[in-house]
Every structure is written in C-alpha cells, then in structure tokens.
Design a protein that fits this description.
The longest helix is centred in the C-terminal third of the chain and has 37 residues. Helices cover 60% and strands 0% of the residues. The two termini are 48 Å apart. By secondary structure, it is mainly alpha-helical.
Length: 170
C-alpha cells in the first residue's frame, strides 16, 4: 500500500457531520437552527421580538433603507425608540410603586432581617427607570438581528430569482 498517496487523517471524511465544512452547510439548515434557537428566547425577549417584527414589517418594502449596504443608524435608533414606546405602554404598572410607604418600609425591613436584599435587584416589579436601559439594549440587539435575518432572506430570494432567470447562451 502506498501510504504517501493516501489522504491525511483530517481530510479523510470531508463533509462528514453537520458542521464539518462551513462552506458546505446549506443556508436553509442554518436558518432553521437560528429560528429554533429564537423559539427558546426568554419570555420577555419573545414578547419584545413580536413588537420589533411589527415595526420592521412597516419598514420592509422594496427600496427600504433596511437593504442598503450601510443602513442609517439614526433611523434604526428611531425604530428602537418606537418599540420602546410600545413596550412602555404595554408594561403593567409595577406593584411596588402602588404600595403605600408603610408597606414598602415593612418589605425592606423584612428583607433586611432575612438577609434577602431584593430592594435594588432588577425584577419584574422594579420601576421602569431601572429597567429601561437594559430593555433598550436588548431591543437594540434584537432589532439588529431582525434586520439581519430579513436582509439574508431577501438576498437569498434575489439569488434564487436570478438563478431562475439565467439562460445559457446558444
């Protein structure tokens, strides 16, 4: 047997396995994986994602800035701001803000005695001013992700349409 003409061990099974060669993995498979992982988002991220996709739907048309090579950052920030307005209007009034001052002091005292410091933690009942920066950052990242996914889908559609219109010269 000629050992010098054989493939090295790392080249013997090209294309073996799901992610063996990144160039060979079909884009459909990658998009399926991304959509599956998107379904596993936490509850609030999924809720925000629906508001984000409704805003991006309004901006998704032929010739939209979303499909420019370099989308306008200011316009994306305005879209994030409109999502934040929707989230803030849908946000229920926190329970802690509606409590009386005496009840708040009792809760703080009980937490101090039980060594459970929850007065400064970020929870569902935290005031909007504490949560807003974190929610804004999450919404911004989800907005960029949504735009990226739409750009990929549009690019894929345009490639398949171009391939369908291709004619061989005679």
């Amino acid at each position: 047997m000629d050992y010098y003409s054989a493939f090295p061990f790392y080249m013997g099974y090209q294309g073996y396995g799901q992610w063996a060669q990144p160039g060979i993995v079909p884009e459909d498979r990658i998009l399926e994986d991304l959509e599956y992982l998107q379904q596993m988002y936490p509850t609030y991220a999924r809720k925000y994602q629906s508001a984000i996709s409704s805003i991006v739907d309004k901006m998704d048309y032929d010739g939209s800035f979303l499909y420019d090579q370099y989308p306008d950052k200011l316009t994306i920030q305005r879209m994030v701001e409109s999502v934040m307005v929707i989230i803030k209007t849908n946000e229920k009034e926190p329970v802690i803000e509606t409590m009386s001052e005496k009840t708040m002091q009792d809760i703080v005292e009980q937490n101090r005695l039980t060594n459970n410091p929850t007065e400064h933690t970020l929870t569902e009942n935290a005031p909007w001013m504490e949560k807003e920066p974190w929610i804004r950052e999450l919404v911004t990242v989800l907005m960029y992700y949504e735009i990226l996914m739409r750009r990929r889908r549009k690019n894929k559609q345009s490639l398949t349409q171009a391939a369908g219109n291709w004619h061989y010269p005679m």
